[in-house]
Automatic annotation (TrEMBL):
Residues 385-409 are annotated as: Disordered. Pfam families: ERp29, Thioredoxin. The keyword Transcription regulation does not apply. One of its GO terms (molecular function) is protein disulfide isomerase activity. It catalyses: Catalyzes the rearrangement of -S-S- bonds in proteins. Belongs to the protein disulfide isomerase family. PROSITE patterns: THIOREDOXIN_1 (PS00194), THIOREDOXIN_2 (PS51352). Residues 15-134, 141-258 form the Thioredoxin domain. This is protein disulfide-isomerase. SUPFAM superfamilies: ERP29 C domain-like (SSF47933), Thioredoxin-like (SSF52833). One of its GO terms (cellular component) is endoplasmic reticulum. Residues 1-23 form the signal peptide.
Length: 409
């Protein structure tokens, strides 16, 4: 019997612990009785009216929880609450609810809510709440904005720089679509914040001071998104026509900038690699000494040709790393590639495990080097490149052979 009591007690403790860990600081006022006992009383209340099936509500949920956590110690001054307006239609109709999610602040002793109509981020809602209540939550300061804010004076300096790929949002502060885009656009900028040649920017063309930019690019709707590619100081915009989601923006900018970023800002397995040199690297790794020297010369020529053209510094640095690896293999033998790969992997693993800390730029650098080393030992790349090389010798159409090699990779 005592044993059963112990098991039961342990179960109760586990349930209580689970509840404590998963407890929410958002007060649920879906029941009309609960709502009437809180709203309109002595404490101000911020209420989110939501529906479980609403996608916008689902995206808002973690931000709203973050907000509630920041005000958890101020419940005597302001309450963060929610109402399932789909479940309690009577209450939704009572406040004349027009859509989901709707956020309203109800001052003390008032049943008339003040609509919140700004960005749906914890930081933006907290700023609104502080303005209305003069109560400051324990909100961590927001990260420094990564979107470059342009003006008529700075527009050409940034956008027309021939070394930069630039995505520009032409917006107006009052535009609802622009407000909804803002947090996504900032996320995109954060993904590419370490790629200095890949710029995410915006300009308020509703500002009279920027009227010349509005007319110059014939902006007639908001937001208008245009991409200005690198390579010329007389750029003309290409319209961005894809979906305005983080995934689509990142895919688009990767294609244009050649950056190989994942949506969390990390680099993919292709980052730092150049297709033209991947084939040379793989052939070099499996070649004899005489053939290796020819491949080194070919790689050095490729790098010198790059120096004479306008290329991104990261691309030139990547090409130079191929030559450095070839020199080390020539001097220390093929085992150098495995040894260096293991060393770099160990550094990344320690960083991921929290054993050591690397700057984000250093993580990128190590990832790019690891990716290049992987190309040296990829036999499939070498075989495809060898077939392409043979085709090139037999065919007068060089570009066709190179295209075939890429397809086979």
């Amino acid at each position: 019997m005592a044993s059963l009591r112990s098991v039961w007690l342990c179960s109760v403790i586990l349930v209580l612990l689970w509840a404590a860990v998963h407890a929410s600081n958002v007060l649920d006022l879906t029941k009309t009785e609960d709502y009437d006992n809180v709203v309109g009383k002595s404490t101000g209340v911020l209420v989110e009216f939501f529906a479980p099936w609403c996608g916008h509500c689902q995206r808002l949920a973690p931000e709203y929880e973050k907000l509630a956590d920041a005000y958890a110690g101020k419940k005597d001054k302001v309450i963060i609450a929610k109402v399932d307006g789909d479940k309690n239609r009577d209450l939704a109709n009572r406040i004349n609810l027009q859509g989901f999610p709707t956020i309203k602040y109800f001052p003390p002793y008032s049943e008339v809510g003040i609509d919140y109509e700004n960005e749906r981020t914890a930081e933006a809602i907290a700023a609104f709440l502080t303005e209305k209540t003069h109560v400051q939550g324990n909100m961590e300061p927001p990260a420094e904005p990564q979107v470059v804010e342009l003006t008529a004076e700075t527009f050409d300096e940034v956008v027309m720089d021939p070394s930069l790929d630039v995505l520009v949002e032409f917006y107006a502060p009052w535009c609802g679509f622009c407000k909804r885009l803002a947090p996504v656009y900032e996320q995109v900028a954060q993904v590419f914040e370490r790629d200095k040649e890949c710029v995410i920017a915006r300009i308020d063309v509703n500002d009279p001071a920027n009227e010349s930019i509005k007319k110059r690019f014939q902006v007639t709707s908001y937001p208008t998104l245009n991409f200005f590619p690198a390579g010329s100081n007389d750029k003309w915009p290409r319209p961005y026509l894809k979906e305005r989601t983080l995934d689509d923006f990142v895919t688009f900018m990767n294609e244009k900038c050649g950056t190989f970023r994942n949506i969390d800002g990390t680099l993919s397995a292709l980052a730092g690699r150049l297709p033209a040199l991947d084939g040379l690297a793989s052939r070099f790794y499996s070649a004899g000494e005489a053939a290796r020297q020819m491949l080194i010369d070919e790689t050095n020529k490729y790098v010198e040709d790059m120096r004479s053209t306008v290329v991104a510094p990261t691309k030139l640095a990547a090409a130079q790393y191929y030559t450095r690896v070839m020199d080390r293999v020539s001097r220390d033998g093929p085992d150098y590639v495995q040894r260096e790969s293991k060393r770099l992997a160990k550094l990344l693993r320690k960083h991921a495990d929290g054993v050591s800390t690397l700057a984000a730029e250093k993580v990128d650098e190590i990832t790019r080097k690891s990716n290049v080393l992987a190309a040296f030992v990829n036999a499939k790349i070498g075989q495809a490149a060898e077939r392409a090389s043979s085709s090139l010798r037999m065919s007068p159409t060089a570009s066709s052979a190179e295209s075939t090699a890429h397809d086979e990779l």
